[in-house]
Amino acid sequence: MSDDLLTTFVDLLTSDFGVEAGEVTPDATFEALGLDSLDVVELTLALEDRTGVKLGDEDLEQVRTVGDAIAKVEERRA
Amino acid sequence: MSAPGTAERDPDRDVVVTGMGAITPAGRGVAATWEGALAGRTTAAHDERLAAAGAPVAISCRAPAVDVDAELGRGAQRRLDRFTHLAVVAVREAIAQAGLVADDPDRIVDVDPDRTGVVIGSGIGGGETWETEYARLAAEGPARVSPLFVPRMLSNTAAGTIAIRTTARGPNLTVNTACAAGASAIHVARDLVRSGTADLVIAGGVEAGITTIAMSAFAQMGALSTNPDPAVASRPFDVARDGFVMGEGAGIVVLESRAHARARGATPLCTVAGCGASADAFHATAPPEDGAGAALAMQRAIADAGIDAARIGHHNAHGTSTPLNDIAETRALRTVFGDRVADVVVTSTKGVTGHLLGAAGAVEAILAATALREQRVPPTANLTVQDPDIDLDVAAGAPRDVTLDAVLSASMGFGGQNAALVLTPA
After folding, report:
1. Among residues B85, B187, B314, B355, which one is catalytic?
2. ipTM beyond cut 0.90
């Protein structure tokens, strides 16, 4: 798993979503971080700015944790 | 409802105010707002954000900043528009004063949440959200629009958020009568309590619409003051007034029957004795010159209170500082009070706060209630030479100590929608 992408998620979630850096681990679910489904869509907009990858509805259906999202971005980049 | 004078009034069924909260350009809290009003110092100032955005008028009355995520919880900045932030801040103060909270500042205790209602007035709703997201749509396309646009922008989000936070599951309504919305919300809430539909209602008005598009449009209408000196721009009833100054804020009251307040040991602050509503049925934005619609709302509120108009010693005016409003309101007061209008001490606190649009009626009801409790009328800021056509006794220069038995507050909205409230002692 890309450390760079984890750092990107830590940045986004701490700056825009009020999450504490220590909470952002690959196993953390977005729900546990206080993000609902609308928040996750908004996160994908910020993620696109940073990575150029846009996760769509079908990707998000399989994303529960930060690690799931990182894997999806890597899959799209591959 | 009985016609005035036809039935014995049961004081236990009177609707009383047991909590008040506010965040306004004059300060955070009812006490700070009242002190600001008494000081008669305008809060209008040059607005750097508007200037930077190229707004044609860059004068406003902004309410204090709120440290949203720290105070209102993680995500509140991102998920909720500023108008909802301001509402939550004012609700917290009001429900705390009403003795409805324990450890959690949002959650009501000791009353039945299923019988607790929320009625909020707002003219615009999430104006900043509209502006920000529309700019994003125009610049970056539909795929970049935030899904949170909808819940942030909807004007009923303030009332909905208050329900989520307080747990109030009673009737939950949003009232829009533009600049009369705060007063209309109190009227609707009073009726919900009086009809027995709800035991207790959290009610008031909120607005946070100091946006470039709103300022541009109000400027195009000629409604805004273009005075080069912000300090004297909002000057209700003055001969040199040339428009209103845009403000933002929230005012919230807790309403319940006197019997319900007594049963739970809450202290009534004043009685919402009468409410009146009317429409001008005249023009989209201008009032009729004779202020007939506003007069009807005032007369209905006085009749609803079942009191003689002669008991009213103070009127907290809509007094926007536009040439048209202040004249129409003067004529309305003449219609209602006749020559006895000379006995009514009038003030417009908009000289201090600017025009809070949908929040104005609620904030001004709170200031009128405080005037009644303190027996003191705040001065109208910046009133130096009273318009000779405004033949009213307007408090100016310093607070006026007056013996008050009943007070009136009136609000007139674009669309020709008028609301008036009569408040009497607790």
Report:
1. B355
2. no
CATH number for the domain formed by residue range(s) B274-425: 3.40.47.10
Q: Is B341 helix (H, G, I), strand (E, B) or coil?
A: helix
Domain ranges of chain B: 15-263, 274-425
Instruction: Give the nearest chain A residue to B151 (CA atoms).
Output: A38
The Cα–Cα gap between B180 and B403 comes to 27
- Supply the angle between the helices B292-305 and B323-337 in degrees, to the nearest 10: 40
Would residue B318 show up in a list of annotated catalytic residues for this protein?
Answer: yes
Q: Do B75 and A45 touch (CB under 8 A)?
A: no
**A66 CA to chain B: closest CA distance, Å?**
18
Specify the CATH number for the domain of residue A10.
1.10.1200.10
What is the number of alpha carbons within 13 Å of residue B15 lying toward its C-beta?
Answer: 31
User: Is A39 near chain B, with CB under 8 Å?
Assistant: yes
Range of A30's domain? Answer: 3-77
Nearest to A38 among B143, B144, B148 (CB): B148
Which among B74, B147, B151 is the nearest to A34, CB-wise?
A: B74
> B213-260, pLDDT tens digit by residue?
999 999 999 999 999 999 999 999 999 999 999 999 999 999 999 999
Give the chain A residue nearest B144 (alpha carbons). Answer: A45
Residue of B nearest to A40 (CA): B147
pLDDT of A2 over the 90 cut: no
Model pTM score: 0.95
Q: Most B CBs within 10 Å: which of A23, A24, A38, A57, as the mutation test of the B interface?
A: A38
pLDDT tens profile B245-299? 999 999 999 999 999 999 999 999 999 999 999 999 999 989 999 999 999 999 9
Mean pLDDT of A47-59: 91
The correct CATH number of B15-263 out of 3.40.47.10, 3.40.1710.10, 3.40.50.300, 1.20.272.10 is 3.40.47.10
Could you confirm whether B355 is annotated as catalytic? Answer: yes
User: Which one, of B130, B144, B132, B68, lies nearest residue A41 by Cα?
Assistant: B144
* Overall domain count for chain A: 1
- What residues have CB less than 8 Å from B127, skipping those under 6 apart? B81, B83, B208, B209, B210, B211, B214
